[in-house]
Amino acid sequence: MLDYQAPLRDMQFILEELAGLEGIGELPECEDASPDLVNAVLEEAGKFAAGVLAPLNPVGDQQGCRLEGERVVAPEGWKAAYDQFREAGWIGLSLPPEHGGQGLPKLVSTPVWEMWFSANMAFAMLPQLNVGQTEALTIAASEKQKATWLDKIVSGEWAATMNLTEPQAGSDLAATRMRAEPTEDGAFRLYGQKIFISYGEHELTPNIVHLVLARLPDAPPGVKGLSLFLVPKYLLDERGEPGQRNDIRCIAIEHKMGIHGSPTCTLSYGDDGGALGYLVGEPHQGLATMFVMMNDARFSVGVQGVALGERAYQAALAYARERVQGRDIVSGESGRPILVHPDVKRMLVSMRARLMAMRGLLYSAAGWFDIARHHPDDEVADKHRRYVDLLMPVAKGWCTEVGNDLCDEAIQVFGGMGFVEETGVAQLFRDARVITIYEGTTGIQANDLLGRKILREDGATLRELIGDIRETAVRLRAHERLGDLAGALDDQATLLDESVDWLLAHQADTAVLFAGAVPLLHLLGTACGAWQMARLALAAEARHEQREGDAEYLQSLIELARFYLATQAPHAHAHGHTLRHAGAVLSHFSEQGF
Amino acid sequence: MLDYQAPLRDMQFILEELAGLEGIGELPECEDASPDLVNAVLEEAGKFAAGVLAPLNPVGDQQGCRLEGERVVAPEGWKAAYDQFREAGWIGLSLPPEHGGQGLPKLVSTPVWEMWFSANMAFAMLPQLNVGQTEALTIAASEKQKATWLDKIVSGEWAATMNLTEPQAGSDLAATRMRAEPTEDGAFRLYGQKIFISYGEHELTPNIVHLVLARLPDAPPGVKGLSLFLVPKYLLDERGEPGQRNDIRCIAIEHKMGIHGSPTCTLSYGDDGGALGYLVGEPHQGLATMFVMMNDARFSVGVQGVALGERAYQAALAYARERVQGRDIVSGESGRPILVHPDVKRMLVSMRARLMAMRGLLYSAAGWFDIARHHPDDEVADKHRRYVDLLMPVAKGWCTEVGNDLCDEAIQVFGGMGFVEETGVAQLFRDARVITIYEGTTGIQANDLLGRKILREDGATLRELIGDIRETAVRLRAHERLGDLAGALDDQATLLDESVDWLLAHQADTAVLFAGAVPLLHLLGTACGAWQMARLALAAEARHEQREGDAEYLQSLIELARFYLATQAPHAHAHGHTLRHAGAVLSHFSEQGF
Known about the structure:
2 copies of one chain form a homodimer. Chain A is of the alpha+beta class. Chain A has helices at residues 8-18, 21-24, 35-63, 78-87, 106-140, 143-155, 286-322, 342-374, 378-414, 416-419, 425-432, 442-454, 460-478, 486-505, 510-514, 517-545, 551-567, 569-588; strands at 66-68, 71-73, 159-163, 179-182, 188-198, 208-214, 227-232, 234-236, 242-245, 248-253, 264-269, 275-280. In chain A, helix 8 (342-374) packs across helix 16 (517-545) and helix 12 (442-454) packs across helix 16. The longest helix of chain A has 37 residues, at 286-322. At the A-B interface, helix 8, helix 9, helix 10, helix 11 and helix 12 of A face helix 9, helix 10, helix 11, helix 12 and helix 13 of B.
């Protein structure tokens, strides 16, 4: 079995030095996030992740979930672990205190969720839904609905789901058909089928609260006719406790390549008279609310990228330190572990560099989220909200693509032992394959980035971000020992600027433009990674100058930044080239050419 | 289930235009390879692959192999398909006529093997071992051994295996411990354990012929003490038929992520007095002979890269033509298949371009192999032998990496349906994950390329190849409609030249040099792909000018070449940059940094 140890030192360094933990802790409503408390939280979470969740990860993979009639049976140990997780209060970590949460900043909960996903992604998907659903209900639910449902969701007593997909409506929610018909007492009866519903059915909690997109009888066509409904598995009795079973059935679970521990359900609503549900927010305005939950999920899936990558890296490093094979190419010695082979070392350093780059971006984004939500200065809050909006598709799209690459590379370090299931690294690779797909594929993220985030505002926020990257390059250039890195970072900024120029100049040619969306996402992700790594190097030098921390560790961070700029950043040029040239060729490529 | 149709048109175009089928058919001993015969062979093979092997692929995946006691039970239908395959004479297609083969050039058998691997890789691994073993025995076995064993191996009546790996000896064969002790009558008794033996045990054939690396009592240490033994599962009786069971036991089969239909065995030799075997070739010279078999296997695994990629591409294309989702971003129409989305089209064209690039390289290499073997002019033969030697690690290493990328991209086209097992594309992705590992990982291929193939001769053959690439660029430049591509191809040649310069200048610093081995392999693969795509475009233009063939098809080949040069070739710069810079950073990175 693979061990997992939360990478506390790396997490803390990035929280403090790149994501501005200290400043976040000074924001209104964030004052609890003192360094001591945060460290204590991370340590406790690390213990829980390593001790309770990680050992269940292979169990979930091997046993999977079973559908028995309409019951979904979870893997052994899942229920006990969930109860422990819930009782320890982990679900409410960053959720509203008025509903029983701890109200800590997203910056603090982000590394904690990274740990849950590293330890056992299939398991952690369950409580993550509670977090997203809380965000959505907090914004759109009535006071009465909040009073009825939110405490139980925040505590995790009841589970949550997100019901969007239907067989004909996957990436395109405009095709949603699920119907909702008003009842006489102001509720609704829902009819239809939803597919790919994570944890759509299970018996880990006494109730499940489904948030469901459906159409009212008078709904306009398309996404502007979608309303949001809260539909519980069990209707509540007069005491507010789960009573009568609602008209929802799990009729199938998917046989998937990975995340076997997480049931992916087909739910049939209303086969027996209609599933009773309650409208959340205004009629026909459901999509915007669902997107609050979806955006939270997207960010979390980005975190899954770094989380699976970290677990894979730890596994590969442990194997490379232990497995003896071949001769040291320099000394000629045999009997040394494979970590001494230059190519194995290259793979591991490359993994570690990308982990730090992803973490830098994700934790920074979490901090921006907190600033956007809590900063008293509207202008500051607004800038950070725009940054979060711009980079959300990058956090999701790029970090999941890189996370897959890392799991792939870990298998390569294991060689033949990576392809056999017993070592556990194959599970990470299989599990990871879903993260570039669910909550919007990389293509969907890239279209969002290009269309809604960049073109709609003529690249304004991206230009602002490029300015920040250039400022970091200026700081590098002024630094005695890091000056040589400035050119490479500036280069990334220039590439981004040129790309924005090109995009704006080709706005009329939609097909050509959108053929470059994914390359653009890779370019921006790679460049943001370079920016974060440059900041990492500057921070490490600063600590070094103040003689704080472990000199070897600080030096290694600087080397990681150098490595990233030398090996990852150059691919941004290729992505930029593809962005500018792929579309034109594609437009000449006819259907007969396939 | 996924359909498979052999891509005959693409195969024929590349055979004729890039790999020089006509010239090969004029070589001594290759005269049977007339265009008519070759087309007939490809058509028949395509039917067999689609009709018999492809439907068994999911069966193999779902049922896998079972170990019952010491028996390995193959999936249902495997035995009947193997008998049909054998009876049709497919195994001997390119094997020596004096042992019952058809003696066709490797150029002809290469697309045929591509088909077998596309249709059912786990199955086709079995007969592929007969081909490799025949090559090895033809070179090293005594006349008596050839007479005893080869006819049955060429016909496929008996199966073949390749026994190298031991628990402590994977990539490093110097650590091999298997012992061989001489008997009084000139045979040997073998003792020890071999692992990861593909088709090490099964009942698909009445006998299995193991080729085994082992050490004689007087063996020097290291790889210079390895001898090669032929060790049959059943000893032959006086009539030459399988008689007494030899002392070999299958004690375990691996639980793998993919190729479930192919049993990966742990074989224990000599637990009951010693497994009787026969020395092949000279004592202590076994590795060179085993490498004949290994090299054949490596090339075949490269072909598996294009084969799995092709199957994945066909699946993704079929899905993209059928699945309706979203609106056409240009016309605004809904109800159109997802192939109209620019990003989906980009993925499919990108897959197709890389398929053609890989095929161009692999089929060209197969043709060079035939020229090396059969050309009457020693100088010509020698040049092509050097090309084959130089590019074998690229054919294996690069094509398997790209093959994995294509299977990954196919899942992305399928979206959520790619992650569920029922569509079959997940199997391709899981199966493909082994090909960058077995028969030498990408890292091993890259070390071979750098150390044995480039540095040992100061880059001489590579410089010659670069000259060929530049010549193609000259032809492009002279062409009215392709002149604009010349710069991009020349650029690849320059990059290669600069990389060779850099390598030669840094020969002293082994660790720095070998840290760049895999980036070098990617660089050379990408550049060779660009070269082949440029040749493809030139050939398509030439046919077009002669008004031969389907104009739309020819035009699409030109677009594929443009697409490759616009999107893949630029990554060669990043690989080159990594080659030159990664090693220096790594040498500063200490053990404490992980």
